[in-house]
Amino acid sequence: MPSTMIVTRNVEARYRGFLTSIMLEVSAGVYVAPNMTQGVRERTWAVMNDWWPALGNGSLTLIWRNPTAVGEFNIETLGEPPKEIVDADGILLVKRK
Predict the structure, then answer these.
(1) What's the pTM value of the predicted model, to 2 decimals?
(2) Neighbouring-strand partners of residue 78
(3) Average pLDDT for runs of 10 along the chain of length 97
(4) Is 63 within 8 Å of 77 (Cβ atoms)?
(5) What CATH number has the domain bearing residue 66?
(6) How many CB atoms lie within 10 A of CB 44?
(7) What's the angle, vertex CA 53, arms to CA 52 and CA 59, rounded to 5?
(8) 70: domain range?
(9) Could you tell me which NCBIfam families the record lists for this protein (predicted)?
(10) How many distinct structural domains can be found in the chain?
(11) Parallel, antiparallel, or unpaired for β 4-9 and 59-65?
């Protein structure tokens, strides 16, 4: 089971309350789950997406371990330009899609 992190910035209290119920808040707006299954991660992100049209301000960034991806993790975002991880001659960079 991969580790998962969600970083929030300037979001409604509903997001923070929901995330605190399923993940550990290790710093203000930073939530981690060391053993979150893919199904739980996908359902959690679906809730974030469902709430976004009504509560969409600030930003949410989801990061999870994926051994087959560049850099061995994936990124999803709400409220910010989508990003992807690219390998530039062995140096990992974040590129806006």
Answers:
(1) 0.84
(2) 60
(3) 90 93 96 94 95 85 90 86 80 81
(4) no
(5) 3.30.70.240
(6) 20
(7) 35
(8) 4-96
(9) cas_CT1978
(10) 1
(11) antiparallel
